[in-house]
Here is the input.
Amino acid sequence: ADPIKIGRVVHMTGPAAGGDAVSHTPNVKLWVKQVNDRGGLKVGDEMRLIEMVEYDDKSNPAEMIKAVQRLATQDDVDFLLSPWGTGFNAAAAPIFAKYGYPQISVTNITDEIPELSERFPGMFFTLGSTTGFVEGLRDTLNKLRDSGAIGNKVAMVNVADSFGIELAAVARELLPAAGYEIVFDKSYPLGTADLSPVVKGAKAAEPDAFIAFSYPPDTFALTEQAIIEDLNVGAFYTAVATAFPAYAGKFGSKIEGNLGAGGVNLDQEAMKAYRAAFTKHNDGPPEYWAAATYYAGLQVLEQAIEGAGTTDRQAVTDFIKANEFDTAIGAISFDEHNESRHYWTVGQWKDGAFNAVAGVGVPVGMEPVAKDGWN
Amino acid sequence: MLEIRNLTVTYGLHKALQGVSLTAEKGEVVVILGANGAGKSSLLRAIAGISEGDVAGDVTLAGASLRSLGADRIVEQGIAFVPEGRGIFGDLSVWENLMLGAYPERARARRKQNLERVVSLFPKLAQRRGQTVRTMSGGEQQMVAIGRAIMSNPDILMLDEPSLGLSPLLCRDLFENLSKIRETGIGVLLVEQNAKQSLAMADRGYLIENGRITGEGQADALLSDPAVQKAYLGGV
Amino acid sequence: MTPGDPILFVNNVTKRFGGLVAVNNVSFEVREHEVMGLIGPNGSGKSTTMNMISGALKATSGSITLKGHDLTRAKTFENARFGVSRTFQLVRILPELSVLENVIAGAVFGHKRRWGAEAEAFAAGLLERVGLAERITAPVGSLTYIDQKRLELARALAGEPSVLLLDEWLAGLNPSELKVGIDLVASLRQEGRTIILVEHVMDAIRSLCDRCLVINSGTKIAEGTPDAVLSDPDVIRAYLGEG
Amino acid sequence: MDILISGLLLGGTYALIAMGLTLQYGVARIMNLANGEVLVIGALTAFLVYTSLAVSPLVTVLVIAPLAFAASWLVYRILLLPLVRRAKNQGQLEVDSILATFGMGFFLVGGMVFIYPELFAYSYLAVPVDLAGTTVAANRLVAFGGAVLIGLALYLWLNRTRAGLAVRAVAVSPLAAGLVGINVEKTSALAFAIGGMITAMGGVLISTFITLDPSFGVIFTMKALIIVIMGGVGDIRGAIVAALILGVVETAVATLIDPGLTLAAAYTIFLLVLLFRPEGLFGRRPA
Amino acid sequence: MMPASLRPLLVAGGLLGLAGFVPLVADGYWLSIAVTILMYVALSTSWALFSGPTHYIALSTGAFFGIGGYLVGLGMSDYDQSFWAMAAIAPFVATGLAALIGWATLRLSGVYFVIFTLGLAEMIRNLISWIQNNFLGSRGLYVLTDLDERHIYWMLLAITAGVFLFGWRLGRSRLGFALRILGNDEEVARHVGINTARTKILMFMTTGFVAALVGAVVAPRYYYIEPNVVFSPELSFIVVIMALLGGTRRLYGPLLGVIPFTLLWEVISVSFPNATTMVLGLTFLLIVYGIPNGITGLLSGFAARRSA
Ligand SMILES: Nc1ncnc2c1ncn2[C@@H]1O[C@H](COP(=O)(O)OP(=O)(O)OP(=O)(O)O)[C@@H](O)[C@H]1O
Ligand SMILES: Nc1ncnc2c1ncn2[C@@H]1O[C@H](COP(=O)(O)OP(=O)(O)OP(=O)(O)O)[C@@H](O)[C@H]1O
Ligand SMILES: [Mg+2]
Ligand SMILES: [Mg+2]
Here is the structure.
């Protein structure tokens, strides 16, 4: 039988390349290999192999749009995988919709889910909303505060890009409402070479918790500075890349107790199996956040195609909406806004692993504990 | 000393020089006269190794061929060149320019003597040693350029229209100085518009027209040649 | 043409570059239809004076006025519009423009403005005037040195300036070309143009100038008819050299 | 005090980024837009050797120097010299070198993605050091020391040696340099190669405290260009002073006003410097 | 009889009319290539209007383009403005800013100007982000409109036509002549009476206006505006490279650069999906070495050889 053609736009270089290379690409490789090794996808009575068609957009949305168009109209791919990043998913949505492709978006965190899903009925959301994220963080802080580990004073910094600005804006509403006092609130530009003034300033405000809505390079830099400055807080939170193996690779045991965006439940059998397979296939473990969810998205697509028994895209989309799927992150289903309300929001490093301590509709791996110094 | 045989310079399709042969000895001043565009500068630039065109023919200095050498090696062989537009380091001081003039290996040992020579020729350069050359007046810059070339301790000094823009007084000084330079044993190959004054102090001269040598001779003979007078001396 | 009333007034102008006084308290007037020579040793401040009149440099103190317009503090382009035109000591041709356009450039934005067909006709006339009529279609890169000088002169004339500044316009010409050049300036003089001329060529100064100003080290040392100043002992000592 | 120390350290980082480019642009007249990529290559090498062979970056920096020198030399001789020879004027060369090195930058990024597409970071000397009451990271201090050493060596080389003199002469006027017996092409190649070497060394030192991925180069290129121009093209002192000023100003603004405004402050300084000294701090006016 | 100078105008008008039909025959992929081409044609051509004659390599396209996109996103997401209102406002904001920047920077010349404009996108992105962060707050800037690629194409076509018309008029105007003189020799330009500062600022403003307008018009295509994507220094470079590739001496030069370049880029992306960046880099190098004077230079070279 003919193979099933699946298209994907990759950011090989440019600002979005690092995220793509960690959270998406190795998963796609793993998934394609697994499926093809067992003979392909079962569509009706046929076993059909997967054939990937990929283009590089160099993190340029105009290029991505062209590439998606090309996949849809020139390569006539049967399905498309969602690109990496909130903005890229938004830019791709109209084309996915125009040609009726289901868009199981993962690395796409937004509060506009209802509007988007109404506009693009085939667009699915799996990694949560902005508000959901901050709520998870708030709840984690609440638990720590209730246990007496931290007080009310929060120092907050954010990278001055859409992602950071948006999260910080939500936090400025939710945290004071929960009785927190934001004693330090600053942004810094993307690509700042030296974050020591930021950490020094935060430390001078004597906070109980430090929250950074940060991007990968600054997540590393903030943590390093906090170690240097010995910023001793009961809760130390950094956002994107805290869940990356490279984070632990750089800091080793010093980050014990650090909080960050994401996290997974390492006790789940499915998760264990996924992580083992990933590690074997890619010579290293996956990161502890979006990678598993992205893989889960691939599983949703796989099960929907097999379940619908056809490559008819409308049928597959309908199947996704109507059913529950068994994935690496557990059972997934979508609500009336196509949102999967099964995601983790906050993780914490413990014994060299990043466990989820807060989530929506999923069991957490452990309860948060206070961070106890940088050792 | 310096011998040029059958030199041809072409810019694209345009032949600026055709089969030019000439010589210059140590301790003599040779002047080259010719109308604008005759090819005088092209000749000197070809000898100095900075021609933008295609060069064919022989250039030898004391029997050694210079043809395939770069500008830097030619300086080492003993030819110093002051091009039109002077070729100085405009953004450096007078003194730095002179010191750089002594960059070639051959010049380093005699740096002090040469410096004394330059300062006695152009005392103003010592007064203005710290001035950035670009801010100097036209004539002052010309002094720097010649000074710089003398610092390279050349056997042959080539000058392209050195009197351009100099006051009458300085002009006369310049030609006197060139005589003095000749007395130190340096050969001078000079392109000049100021035919009267230059022939007056030169030993020999060549006439160039449309890229070819059309005449040569002892300076005094040329000076009294009616044809030369008509073409280059304002038809007195 | 006989000189008329003074139109350009240079009053106590001084120009300092850091510690160096390039022009020191110089004053003079230029009358309409007059050709004034400005001579002096190298580095005496001639080009600097020209630059202050054209607006390329601002005077440290003193004032310059042309027909009631204050040139001292004005921008360079304003000086041009008030009626100053110049040529440069090192020729400055606009290499990417045609010969004709090079001249039109002087006619469009300056003192008397023309545009379109009128400017073209006027520029063509000027090219003929300076003897470049045949080269009108030649690429500018192929112009000989004297033709470039002619072209620059035509450009300077194109704005019909009240005063024309020629900074060593004759330098670098060989004796026969020099004759052509002197004749050309002489014909401008015949037309009654007002010109300030900086030259080191004494034949030109003698035959072209109504009056001469001599500066040395930035200071005016003599003023008068060419014959008078060129036989002035101070001038001979500082500039011409004895004997 | 705090601000001054942190600012100077940051300035040291900037100097590492910019010193190489000032040679390449000032002397060899190549506006090298692949400068940042060379830096990242240095950093990536340090990371790979550190994580796979456990070799200290302080060793890597010495090993990479001759390699980067040789590679840059070749790039100049093979790829850039034809452009230099062809250019009729400085403007033409500027345009050509912008285009060519932009292409090289692309090529290098693409190559690095093949080798290691992800973020890379490792921990080296990430320990606090007390410096006049301010805590600073030891690795930044080491990098600063490296910057000082490299800057000093370069300065001495330029001002005390014959080759250095030739380099400075070529920076001012290639034509005149040829006439005083300097081999302009060789000297330019030398300057370009040393520039590449310094940049790669800077990359190694910076990798001890900055997290990068292969696409980061452009950020460094822009910083470097700004510093080079601010300092005055071709003047090594200028680049160093400009780097330090930028470091101190950015730190001061981040500490006293708002970290969000550091880049804006940097550009404001850049603009102010150029408005009051269009030739740059130590530069000479373009002729 | 028609005057010779109107001929190119009619030809251009005809081509434009034809171009208007593209969305009716091309769809999907080809349409999005067409949109990309038009976007770059408008940007490169307007860039060349200023930088071509003056030789000032402005790398500010990304900055003004970003302002256009960003303001549209901001206005629509946070202030409930319509797309049309924001698309109308944005270019004027950019023009004002260009005037300010031009006033401050055009005293810089050569490489100083190049570097400053290169940093401009970065600086504006930071300032805007900072303002948004501290004073506006936001929930992501979505540009949700009902415009599809066809509409964007037609809008871009109108802008491109406007740019060409403007360029054509400019070529015949005193301003255009002043620019050419200025590009040859600024000193001479001042001495023939040209207000060089004003001339440069006016043109810089024009370029800023067009770039912002294009940025605003293509914003609906991106749906979501991220500062670090719309303020892209890479865009500035690509625009310059395309214009130089085509040649800046003629109004249609950039057009001749954009079309082959975009198609070549496309071919490379498709043929080397795993090494696009590397191959593109090599291609840049080949272009620099192989086509030193741009495509118009190449063409006039052919023409000269034929007539010789
Ligand atoms: N780089 C070049 N490219 C093309 N043609 C050139 C070049 N240099 C000189 N020429 C041409 O070669 C011819 C001779 O020029 P050259 O400069 O040698 O003359 P010259 O005798 O020095 O004149 P002048 O008295 O004006 O200095 C001229 O026709 C000139 O146009
Ligand atoms: N920008 C400047 N900075 C410093 N000094 C300057 C500057 N411009 C001119 N000078 C100095 O001012 C003096 C006068 O220079 P100017 O160019 O006016 O002389 P000049 O009379 O035209 O001489 P020449 O006949 O040689 O052209 C000179 O000593 C020169 O070095
Ligand atoms: Mg000559
Ligand atoms: Mg002068």
Q: What stands out?
A: The radius of gyration of chain C is 17 Å. The pocket of adenosine-5'-triphosphate (ligand 1) is lined by residues B 11, 14, 16, 34, 36-42, 52, 84; C 145 (CB under 6 Å). The interface with chain B takes residues 17, 20, 40-44, 47, 89-90, 144-146, 168, 171-179, 200, 202, 238-241 of chain C (CB under 8 Å).
